[in-house]
Amino acid sequence: MASTLHLKALEIQLDAILALGTPKLSFMATTFTPNSETDQYFSDISAEVASGTTAVTLGSVTTTIDAANNRVELDTANPSLSTITATTNKYCLWVDTGVAATSPVLATIDIVEGTLSPVAGTLSITVNAEGHYALKAV
Amino acid sequence: MALVVESTSTVSANNADNLTITKPASVAVGDLLILIANGSGLSGKPTCSGFTELLTSSADGNVDTNVTMLYRIADASDVSASNYTVGLAGSVSQGAAAMLRVSGWVSGNPLFASSAGSTVIDSASYSIGGSGLSITRPGQQLLIFAGNHISEDNNATYSGFSITSSDSNPTWTTVADSLAYDTDSGIRVYNFFVAYAVSTDTSTITAYAANASSSISGGIDSDAYFLAVFVAPINATGTNALLSVSPAIFEDAGVEVGGTGTNALLSVSPSFFDQSGKGTIMPVWTNTDKPATPTWTNQDK
User: Is the Cβ–Cβ distance between B141 and B112 less than 8 Å?
Assistant: First the structure.
């Protein structure tokens, strides 16, 4: 018998974290190297946000059990910022509790295309069809 | 949308405290208006109501000077305006200015990159510019090369505007090449120039230069100048690969039963059952008295 986590519980855990505040996305400077241990809250990464950008409030935040793939997926609407001059190659998902020091960072995700450098243009992410990330049961 | 210089206007005046520059032709709401003007001293920068300073360069010579760039996004008031007043700060009493109307910009600060420099030299022929640069230009761009020369006796002219990159030098258009005098402060000669080029090349700019020719040698020439790079708006859209996080499930080692163990104290409380009882009084039997020392006589046999 194989050990496993259970999908519904994973979904409930993820929903509970998202319910702490407002899910947001921040584009990060290319110099930012995420540390999965020490980058705990937004206050730990705020200095590494890409210059010229602001945090994007994520819309249509959903968690979905993908039974076929045995995982729970986090998906949102495509985030974008307009009239932006910046350089970025990754973004962080975090939950804004209103206090940076208590706003947990969920994930740092690379931009597939590498470095994006809009000039007074729109900076956007076309989110993968299955979402930003998934928690697998096995 | 590409940046396009749609129209320009210039002005220069001798012995003036301010300038009135005519609005470039056909200004429309949303146009980028770039104003470049000279100034006196190191900090006496020109100003214009509603415009924001973008860039300035100064030259610290026998006589100091500066050249300054400002911008504004045109609104309805610009459409209806006919001219702008440029204030000449400090002790200056001459001036020159140029304005470019640029389409293709959106909003906000349009300056993408720049390099400023100055030259103070006593020579009839010299070069101005900068080198050792690393100016990126990720898309179609407008390049503006502007400067101001001041001397107590020399008139200067400029030619051969260029940038150095792995691409060829673009074609430059001279917008202003003006001469102004300030006789209120003694004879001072000002030469103001503005040239621009548009390019779709994206190679890194490593240097920029122009040739300056002074009317006579033997006098100190001071030049302040800059190269400004305006890049057309660029959108950037990326995607993400799904980050799938697998659990780490720890295999628990089995614990062998047996060996030495411990126990928790099992404390058992007593249960008291009520008992029913029955009491019986036993009779007390008393022997009858017998004579106390009777004399027994055996019978005959």
Answer: yes
